[in-house]
User: Fold these one by one.
Assistant:
Number 1:
Amino acid sequence: MFKLYNTLTRKKESFIPLRQAQGKLQKKKVNLFVCGPTVYDFPHIGHARTYIVFDAFVKCLRQKGVKVFYLQNITDIDDKIIARAKEKKTTPKKLALLFEKEYLKDMKNLKIDSVTKYARATNNIKEIISQVERLINKGYGYKIKDGIYYDISKFKNYGKLARRTAQQAEDGVSRIDKAKEKRNKGDFCLWKLSKKGEPKWESPFGDGRPGWHIEDTAITEKYFGQQYDIHGGARDLIFPHHEAEIAQMEAISGKKPMVKYWIHTGFLTVKKTKMAKSLGNFITIRDFLKKHSARTLRLFILKAHYRSPVNYNEKLISQTKKELERIDEFIDKLNKVKNKKEKEEKSLILKTQKDFEKAMENDFNTPKAVAIIFELINKGNSLIDKNLLSQTNARDILKLLKKIDKVFNFIFQSKKKEKIPLKILELIRERRQCRQEEKWKVADKIRKKIERSGYKIKDTKDGPIIKKNL
Ligand SMILES: [Zn+2]
């Protein structure tokens, strides 16, 4: 049984899918929505953290037989997109399409392939307008000069997710709309009337574009209905964004809660400050992958708990690479075990699997799960060194690691066999020659040369192993 920390109740709760709780059929069907990107620039590794966490989370649930519909929105119309398009002398539509493509490319490179559906805001304008209309009809929406706004004083439970009151709402941290004629300072925009030259869609309340919060609820109502299982995102979205979503959807439907479990990921920080576009302290996924592998980022992210802050620096990335090397060496060794003697190490394998599952079911405790993998590596290595691991057991361990890697995607390297350049192969040959002739000093010089070229050489009893620096 999964246990999840729910931001709404501030408690770890047993995960019971909505359909199961309502006694419906297909009780293992779960709807999950995670806030997607605003496509005006390249995403950074702070964004990657949230998407890697939910990718592994969904894969883990699916491995348990839960049928997850994983939905993500794409904010492809927004003030930032309009402003950036102006700067770049292009149209907002072209800019959004370009960065949507780049976002999907980054996700693919990070092996994030669990999303069932990406839904663009601009493909759901009809649904958005319908929600704004219903909010006006119920007395929550009102019109002023520049758009339709939501009157937060009308919604009794405003602040229940972020644990704030309507009066505190005015100190909202992001994207609270500034119009002067608003009834309450914390009122947020549902529909923005277009100024000259801005993108616009026709609506009964005037030509304009959707506010930010309304696109999520319109999209989830369309695909999931008015109530669903899990909503995720980075923790800075709790207020005002997710609070606003609750206010919109629960006001329309009269049903609560809109979402049963709210899951929020912690920040990626640089020198204790949150990595953010606005602060300029970010590294794009693109730039990260120029220097390091996707599996480095996946391990780096998943060895921390998703709710804790993760501090980023190059030293910690090097440490992660060393951990990956230990994994690679272990897998190499397992593949070479030829011991036919039947040794009973079944208990080690079974225990590892059980402990791993227990860790994952306990609020997705990936740091514990990663530690369990390294415990297995330590024990396995010592058995192999003493020639105490049989080939059958080695294969069973490989099988278990493959199963775990369907969730983690950092244990096995991609299938592409690395091609070692001729120049390096030549140096290796020369070095072998020198070693045979006991010219140790020259051999050592050649080794250093190989390392300077970005390769690592390790001598084993079966000959040298060459690897590119990760
Ligand atoms: Zn969102």
Number 2:
Amino acid sequence: MNPQQLLILFSLLVGALGAKAPPNVVLIMSDDMGFSDIGCYGGEIETPHLDALAANGLRFTQFYNTARCCPTRASLLSGVYQHQAGIGLMTGDRKLPGYRGEIGRNVLTIAEALRTVGYRNYMSGKWHVTRHTRPQGPKDNWPLQRGFDRFYGTIIGAGSFYDPATLCRGNTFITPVNDKAYQPETYYYTHAINDNAVAYLQEHAEKSPDKPFFLYVAHTAAHWPMHALPKDIAKYKGRYDDGFAPIREARLKRLKEMGIVGQDLKMSPRSDDWDKTSHKDWECRNMEVYAAMVDSMDQGIGRIIEQVKKQGQFDNTLFFYLQDNGGCAEGYGRYAPKKPYPEYKPMGPDQFQTKIWPPMQTRDGRAVRHGPGVMAGPEDTFIGYGRGWANVSNTPFREYKHFAHEGGIATPLVAHWPKGISKERRGKLEHHPGHLIDIMATCVDLANVNYPKKSGGHDITPLEGVSLAPAFSGQELARKDALYFEHHLNCAIRDGDWKLVRYGQTGRPSKLRDWELYNIAVDRSELKNLAKSNPEKAKELADKWEAWAVRAKVKPWPWKFEVD
Ligand SMILES: [Ca+2]
């Protein structure tokens, strides 16, 4: 063999080894957004960077979350159902194994799993899987103690985008003013999350270029309050003047054109009548700001993509984008104050913002205003975009954040990975149902993690999900079991084309309603309840759900409830 042939052989060997190198993973999740908000899922909101990932990647059309912030994060990070990870509800301790309000030591986080095979792990954004949120309290379930090498972000969920409560760098509480590592001209949390993610990528390239990385970017856009910067809001001025219905119709039309939903799918009922809506200018502004929040998140995702490209890692980086629950119909910030706003003083540079909703103040000492007529966007405003627009966000599905109907639990999932997604699959759709539990299983599969049965003296709960990797080359997923849901007594099971679902969170005390049965293949908007016409299927699925509920620590419930 001559020297030239040797060189070619060497290059081929290096290439072959490179092909087997585990991918970097960038996992991006947004907060309180509906199924059809982003462009590549039918939305009119401009998200060119996510659309570009979709155009060269794979879009999952039936991917599911848990309908709420904390449980979604617990399930996503651990690869098991949220109750199994200890966060069946939120971050309060209900003294039951499924409801400790704390991500347990019986699970690993994705970061802890990937660390076992040499990954460096970075996180920027919202954590929200611990009940210990004070500067001096226990931090054993904070990101740095759960597998991440770097952390910038907030320990709790929600709050001002200009002055987030529980803002931390590593284990240390900071304020936007006293954080020496990050001093932009205007502090805005969405930008801060993206900018710090970019900084972590740069640090990785400088200090650990030989290692793969996992970057978890947990956005709080577009959770209330509707906060966005003027130039981004201006882009959407007038876009929503015709109200809810035309936007819903346009979104459903595009979803059908894209093939994301079936051609015969019917629209879910409208929640609100625009003609009867008071304060139309105010409602338009709320949606303009919401759109601006999503737009600004996408701009930053573009900066992350650019940085990964600059580092020569784009081909072997698996990007995931998904949302933690459906559009939010909660009424936060939508009512006028009952009492005059309190008087405030300016805050010192080291003084922490402790509030996530009013009454609260800006750092310069102004009261934060809310209620109809307060035009959303600036730091002294606190507005939720409300049920009418949440109904638009969740087009064409029923219900909202909190609920187990499709509007609560359906999320886009965009996957992009040039080295791993076959050419034939790029720009295509994957219709097989998937769930948050599959993200950990995919990471474990692709990084060749030998998932432990024990860790740190604790028995580790086996993973519930399946790897999504087969879908990257058009193969069937290996799922054997159904997908299950429970949040605040809103319950569901998805088994093949069938879905059984019921309301729980209605009235006080909470009441469990009758199960509803839908054939999702033809009726994903859940309009024709087949429970009475097919009681055998309803019973079969209900029995299966009950068995899961006991196995997965959903039961016993920490509430008193009645059955209708
Ligand atoms: Ca959320």
